[in-house]
Each structure stands twice: as C-alpha cells, then as structure tokens.
Amino acid sequence: MPDFCESDLGFDPKGEDGGIRALDAHQTGHFAGRPAVSCPDPCQFLRRMPRSRRSSARRHRAALAVQALHGGVRMIPAVELRDVSWGPPKGQDILSDLGFAVPQGQIMAICGANGAGKSSLLRLIYRHHAPRSGVVRVLGQDLWQSRATAVARNVAAVLQEQPTDFALTARQIVALGRLPHRRGWRAGLSLADDADAGIVGAAMERMHLTAMADRSFATLSGGERQRVMVARALAQEPQVIVLDEPTNHLDIRHQLELLALLRGLGLTVIATLHDLTLAAGFADRILVLAVGRILADGPPDQALTEATLARAFHVKARIDHSGHAPRFAFHL
Questions:
Q1: Which residues are CB-neighbours of 80 under 8 A, at least 6 positions away?
Q2: Rounded to 5 degrees, what angle do the CA atoms 246, 220, 205 make?
Q3: Which helix or strand (DSSP H or E) is residue 202 part of?
Q4: Whole-angstrom Cα distance, residue 138 to residue 51?
Q5: Is 111 helix (H, G, I), strand (E, B) or coil?
Q6: pLDDT digits (tens, 9 = 90+) for 276-309
Q7: Strand arrangement of the beta sheet that strand 285-290 belongs to
Q8: What is the pTM of this model?
C-alpha cells in the first residue's frame, strides 16, 4: 500500500520537535477561498516515510483528540458525541453509549463488520438521525438545536446510495452544494451566481470532472457518479466531511487519489472504510465498532490489533508490519 505524503501526516523533518508538527487550524482552510495543506501532485503520497515516524506522527495527531489544545487555548471539537444511543422507533438500540470527540482537522476512519452500526453513526453526525439519548455537537453546537441549513454549511455528506433518475447534469448536481449558502430570495433559485459558479467549477476540476460537466448524471459510471458527489460536498465548503464507503466503485488509482485529496483539504474527515489497509494508511485515528458499541479507538497501529479484529469480525487475523504499511490476512 503506497504511503501518503509527509506533509499530510504532519511530518516536518526540519521541525524543532524532531519531525512531528501539529497542523495549525488557522493555516488549514476551506477547499476553496483559503490555502489548504495538500500535496501539489496527487501522486506525491507515493513518497515513503519510515514506519516509526509515521506511527509517531499519527500518535501525536491522535493525541489532539484528547487534548484538543491550540496555542494553550482549548479548541472546540469539530464533532463530539456524549452518551449517545440510537435505535429505530419502537425498536432496540442499534448504537449504545457512544462518546468521543474529533478535533478540527483530524482524519478518522470508522471500521467494523456489517451491521456494526457504522452508517447509523454517520447519520447521527450529518443530522439524519436524532439520538434517542445523549447529544451530538458539531463545532460546539447541538445539531438538533440548530437549523438544518446552518448544519449543512458546516457538514457535508457523501453517501453510498446515489439516485440515478436525476434529470440533471453533473455540473447541476455539484451546484446543489451551494444551496445552504443561499439566503433570502436566492435560496430557491437553481442558477448559480458568478461566485458560486467559480466554486462549482473549482470543485469539478479538482475531481477531474470538467470534461463531463454537461453530461447527464444518469449516464455516468458508478465511479464517475461517486466523484460527482464528492465534488458536490467540496462545493458545499464544509468544515466536516462525512463519507460512507467513499472508495466504493472507484478503481485503484482513483481510490488513492481521493484519499490523498481528502487528507489535503485541511478539514475534519470522518469516513467508513471496509478496506483495513486503506484505512490504516489514510486515517490518523480509527474507531472500531462492534454491535453498536466502541470496541477500539486510537491510532491505526493501536486500534487495529489482531485481538481487536478477531472480536470485531469473528475471524483470525494476522498483521504483517514488515512493509511500509500494515498488511492484513484473515482466515476462519
């Protein structure tokens, strides 16, 4: 599995702290309009860093989840869940007693077996499900004490399900990301102004969609539709991006390019991933769910242990640490 670029991991070989630096929240901005920490070439993530330094970098950034400090002042977590449980009406809890905080700018992957509650957890974060108990906060605000449009300015979601019966072009789908930012009489208009058009165009260019901007969304392949939905999320200019299996339908190169892009945005990213090798190479922190509860939460090398994987997936796991990234083997 190729590694990501050193700047993405918060690694500075000339830094006074011996090579580890925390990303400054004031230096990592929106996708459009402010500079972001990114690889100038999507393939720069092929540069290799020694595994010991990668682990140290991830442990340092994961520690921000506990400390959440910046310049000696406590930062507001991007996402925070406290004592959260959820289940369908008149049904048993699917998620129980969840509590964690994700600092601004952190990349977190959620892993677990089918039915563990991964997608349900994401739905709580992007305000689709209201918790049965507890509270979900984004940037310090209770989601269910905030207006939906206000939440949508801060949280964008990319889901697995993509309707194909839209009579819209790829550009029009991406432009939907600007709706939360429209106010007053402009709110219901489908036409974008010059500023919105520039943001939409930049998002499509970043996802390599410019050539198919005027094609019908229904005619695109599964991978192309996935990239359109990610571009729509980028056009939304959120502080938090939530993705449910974002690498589904993508070929290997587009998987790696998408994960490198997400790391370079300088935003908080929370994604479910089935591929543990991709998750370990992509995320600062991994949360493992089992039967709706948190089984493990920490840097990849601490969360994805053989014992944890055996409990989460009911298989025997073996992890090979001899390469530049861990490789996983499973058997019954």
A1: 100, 101, 102, 136, 137, 138, 140
A2: 70
A3: helix 194-206
A4: 33
A5: strand
A6: 999 999 999 999 999 999 999 999 999 999 999 9
A7: 155-158, 240-244, 268-272, 107-112, 285-290, 293-298
A8: 0.77
